[in-house]
Structure formats: structure tokens, C-alpha cells
Write a structure and sequence with these properties.
Length: 153
Amino acid sequence: MNWNLLYTLINALVIPAWLLLLLVPRWRTTGLVVHSGIYPLAYGSLYTICLFASMFFGQSAEGVGMGSVAAVAALFDHPNGVIVGWTHYLVFDLFVGAWIGRDALRRGLPHLAVAPCILASFLFGPVGLLAYMLVRISRGEGISLFETPDAPR
């Protein structure tokens, strides 16, 4: 397995989705590509395959586990563990970025206020979600993650 090539590919293939969210959030293609589930299915499949390879086919370092910091750190001592962890970050960060984009559109928030939050989600994950929640608070939209603008308050 060429781990560097796989790492490069999973990074490169997620960039179009982020560009669509940032540059053309209302474009039909953005909805079809980013909000359709294509990325979670593809990246979730890769994650599952690599995770199973780690668990059942020896593609992991010695001492891997979830019971201690050392055991979790050992996950990243094998290239497959890095791919598993990085794929996890990529798919969840994109999921959050896509949710931010959809939620902002539903609420009618200006894209110029939301785009930095989407970019921060791409670069720093939870920082982008925090920033978006602060934008929502500053615009009087509240902080409930499960409430839609149409739901009674």
C-alpha cells in the first residue's frame, strides 16, 4: 500500500466540496455533491475498510487501544492508523461544514458572515463550529443545534 499516495488522494478529493461550500453555497451542484451523502459514504467506506484492516489484518502498531493515552497514541504509529484518524477528521469536519452551510441558508444568514466559519471548520474543525455558533448568537438566532428557524420557540 502506498500510504503517502492514499493520504494525498483523500486530502485532494475533499477540497472540491469545501470550495463549493465556500464559493457557491446556493449552486445546485453544491447540493448534489456536498449535501447528498456522497462524501460520508465514500470516506466512511474507506474509514471502515482501514479500521477493519487495523483490527483484523495486522495493519496497526503494537499496543493500540482506547484505554490510555499511550494506547490511543499507538494508533498513529502505523500509517494505516494515520489514514483512519485523518479520514475520521476529514469526513466529520466536512459534515459539520455542510451542516453550517445548510443551517445558514435556512436561517438567511449572510454568506460573508458564515464563510469564515466554514473555512475554520475545514482548517480547525471545532473552531469553525464555535465561530458559527457565535455568529448565530450575534444575529439573534440562538444556539440550539436541533431547532430550525421554522420550529416554534
